[in-house]
Batch of 3 targets.
Target 1
Amino acid sequence: MTFAADALADRIALVTGGTGPLGQAIVDALVAVGAHVVRVALDTSTTAGVGPALDARIVDVAGDVTDDAVIARALQIADERFGRLDIVVTAAVTYLDHGLDTARADWLRALDVNLVSAARVVAAAAPRLARAPGGGRVVHLASIGGKVGIAGRATYPAAKAALLQLARNQAAELAGRGVRVNTVSPGWTWSAPLARLAG
């Protein structure tokens, strides 16, 4: 993953799910080109970052992104440490999914992590993003799973399909405030969660 260094140097980013396979790669790429990152994750003790020199650019916030208090704390830390917020990347994810047999509680949990948390983070961050020099940016990690039918799956692709529509709505609503909203829809990416799914 590459970025234009001149566009991201000294930018301030908040990344949810920042210790997952894709989230960690995004954090590493951002700090490698000079951005500062507030990384939100359930467990920040198991990260494999870019090395001590660049890790100094990362501020960890341990907590569940489905908790609005955790989101508020992360934004407060961005305010206190950096005085602004330029970028939000929503990469928090759960693969909790039992297809047709998924229980109601699991549906609600999966949607809370994969969809509602992204909505809540952007809603809370929007006033700060609107003040970002040159305009704020939001990138949602969606999935090709949200665009095609997948046998044996239910919650994950449904949430990702909804995330694509959420991004369209947010883009329309925030455009007038100078905030761009986009999605990235990766295909299968080999990782520990995929290894567990594949056995």
Target 2
Amino acid sequence: GLQGDIPLTLTRMLPLLQSRTAMSEELEDAVTAAKEKIRDQIDSDMSQDGEPVHPGFLVGLLRRHVKPDAVVAVDVGDHTYWFYKRFQCRRQFILMSASMASMGFALPAALAAQFQEPQRQVVCVTGDGGFGMVMAEFTTAVKHHLPIKVVVLNDGCLKNIKKEQARDGYPEYGIDLHNPDFAAFAESTGALGLRVVSGKKLESAIREAFSYDGPALLDVLVDPESMLPGVKRVKRL
């Protein structure tokens, strides 16, 4: 590891770098195949417009409608994997705290971002577990007229914990959630709240929420069985 001023350190390092050799044909083929696999997965997800909503389909629609210069705050959970494996950034500024297991991060991060960047679109992508921990802070957006857009992937459980318990051979324990109607909650605060149960109605709901002049919340009932594999850290010797 290096500690130092970034411009100064990089300037000192540049003369020490050697020119890179061309990528081998074998490696280039492997990279191309990996990219094609990802594109195929994204295309497959975009055909899943049934009920309940497929998480990959939701992220694909967000990719269409989130502005190129938006700030996107992403919470911690299974939806985090769907976001970073399916959301192809253009120039969006992504706020993510997944490696710190900090559930509830995205909503306050979105509020801070909207205070800092009042002219930019700010989107909060969160799960029902993370949002439920801090949902009272949504009233802050209403009080201060912060037009954040909150997208809740609502599957009724702590799905990331569920798959980790299964991966490590433990029985399911303590993962079921008793959720309120998040859309009705948003409406009760004076914001726009929309509840979506079908993929066929999702895009119109996203358009309505994202064009709303004020804070808006999408409560999207997603498939609790659609999960992406988690990451198991390699033990250091």
Target 3
Amino acid sequence: MTRTASLIRMDYGAASQSRDYDLVRRGIQFLSEGWVTQPDLDALARHLGLEATECQKLFKRWCGLSPKEFVQAITLDHARSMLSGAAPVLVASHEAGLSGGGRLHDLFVTWERMTPGDVKRQGAGLEMRFGFHATPFGEAVAVAAPRGLAALAFVNEDAGETRVETLDGLKHRWPFAHYEEDTSATAPDITAIFGSVGSMAQRPIRLVLIGTDWEVRVWDALLKIPMGRAVSYGDVAHQVCTRKASRAVGTAVGKNPISFVVPCHRVMRSDGGLGGYHWGLTRKKAIIGWEAGRILNQLRSP
């Protein structure tokens, strides 16, 4: 597929994607809060103001799962089952050849950090391009530095956040950089990240990370977590230095500037609880369920 065709595919139905995510987001919240009672399809459809058939098709179209399968994928029991018996998941996945280009994660990512000079200048002299885009998880803003993608953040509508506030939250990392809105500059990365399975293999994403040595080490560890797996903060701490650093890991995870691509959503509490998520727990549940759907679909394929 040509780059132009890929961008057209991304633009096509962008409004529909945004509507779908809003409905699925509300549906996930409904199912998550009442999963113990196992609400049926009719109850969910009534809650969303949809016909039952349309509701079923929406979930199938969005992630390949029925509402029943979806709620099973995002409950805490699912998170606990991913964590059980596999303490050093990062180590195991690395030894199994799942890190880098060969990992189960469908994103092929390379990264570098900002130079010490860039960090010292706090972005002075850097030209940063940004754009707002519809994604399967709501609207997001991407920021591109000269050498790669520097930031990706969802507009956290659950917290009443606006576009301006989301962008301002990213700008503080490079306060003296020059920012210019240029959606065409960030669209190729968005297409590659949220496109079809395997699209990243055809167009690798290059990341530019800015942070302390500790933060970058933690983010690098997150990049090694395969899709469909979850780790605890203690697991990440063990990989980076020692399990006793779990609290410091949690702080670094919370400062992750590139959502979804650097998969901080795959880090849970050691008891199987979801833990926190800068862009809202409903979105974290949605991403986990979406990834579970992709894994199931891959397993079902002949």
